[in-house]
Specification:
By secondary structure, the chain is an all-alpha fold. The chain contains 8 helices and no strands. It folds into 2 domains: 2-67, no CATH class; 76-133, no CATH class. The protein starts with a helix and ends in an 11-residue tail after the last helix.
């Protein structure tokens, strides 16, 4: 089932098929997944039942990528963007306070947003601090 899903998705990514054809090709894939999750729901195992119940609660969101441009079928991009923060936390043993954790979270957000916008984070932070000391508006971080 997963192989078929990603084969169809990659065909769309390569522009071999348009979104309408991708959606049509995904219908039997979604049906097969629904049948498998339904079987898991009916299974006697409590954990499997709970997982299936949660999947059914989120069912429409799981298939958003089929209908909405720019949505991916996986969270790989998000996982990759979190990796530097995870490695930092492991290497530095984290923070010692809620305020420290909040600071790190905010700085990681700024750094990742800047990276995605093609802005150099250190330069942006420096310009923002300079603007704050002069009572000026900070430079934009998001592209207009």
């Amino acid at each position: 089932m997963s192989d078929r899903l990603f084969n169809v998705w990659h065909s769309h990514q390569r522009s071999d098929i348009d979104r309408m054809h991708m959606a049509r090709a995904m219908e039997p894939v979604e049906d097969a997944w629904e049948e498998a999750v339904g079987a898991a729901y009916e299974n006697g195992d409590d954990k499997l039942h709970a997982l299936a119940r949660d999947l059914f609660k989120q069912w429409n969101a799981l298939w958003t990528f089929v209908h909405v441009e720019g949505v991916e079928p996986t969270n790989n991009d998000a996982e990759r963007s979190l990796r530097p923060a995870v490695l930092w936390r492991k290497g530095s043993f984290g923070t010692r306070s809620d305020a420290g954790s909040a600071f790190v979270a905010r700085m990681r957000t700024v750094i990742e947003t800047a990276r995605r916008q093609g802005v150099r984070p250190v330069e942006w932070i420096e310009q923002t601090c300079r603007a704050a000391t002069l009572g000026l508006e900070p430079p934009p971080l998001l592209a207009a």
